[in-house]
Amino acid sequence: MRKAEFEVPQEAMTEFADELVSRNLNNTVTGTTEDGEIIIEVEYDKDESDEVDELESILEKILVEQEEENEE
After folding, report:
1. What does the pLDDT look like over 4-62, one tens digit per residue?
2. Are 46 and 2 in contact (CB under 8 A)?
3. Torsion of CA 8, 10, 14, 19, to 10 degrees
4. pTM here?
């Protein structure tokens, strides 16, 4: 079993959680960072690594969109 860790800002949590649930990956909230981000650990098998890569891309996209909204 492989593991990936995501640090998700609170503002992005709802959208990220929806994406995570839709992929049906085993996950655990393990804590928070000093900046208040939520730490999520995802356990996955080798054949699910593409889905984890997609989650990484989705989180990055969410963060970029939020930065752009904050600049406006």
Report:
1. 999 999 999 999 999 999 999 999 999 999 999 999 999 999 999 999 999 999 999 99
2. yes
3. 0
4. 0.89
CATH number for 23: 3.30.70
Which residue(s) pair with 5 in the sheet? 41
List the domain range (segments joined by +) for residue 26: 2-71
Polymer length of the chain: 72
Q: Total domain count for the chain?
A: 1
Q: Which residues of 18-53 are buried (b: 16+ CB within 10 A; e: fewer)?
A: eebeebebebeeeeeeeeebbebebebeeebeebbe
For residue 72, the model assigns a pLDDT of: 76
